Amino acid sequence: MTGSADLDLSMLDRFRDDLVGLKMPRALEALDHIVAALSKARSVCFGVQV
């Protein structure tokens, strides 16, 4: 992984921890859905199949 990808993962981990701490499970599910959609879109843009 690149430094940027590591930074993105740590940022996502902080968001998840905050959402769990705030007791916002639906927001956590929404975040996971958004991240999955972005990952899929990035794969399509760069021609990588998942």
What are the salient characteristics of this protein?
50 residues; mainly alpha; elongated
Which descriptor suits the 3D outline? elongated
**Could you tell me how far the N terminus lies from the C terminus, measured between alpha carbons in angstroms?**
17 Å
Helix content: over 70%
Secondary-structure element string = HH
Please compute the radius of gyration using only Cα atoms: 13 Å
| SSE-based structural type | mainly alpha
How many strands? 0
Question: What summary fits the major beta sheet?
Answer: none
> Mean of residue pLDDT?
76
Q: What percentage of the residues does DSSP assign to strands (E)?
A: under 5%
Number of helical runs? 2
Weakly predicted, low-confidence segments: none
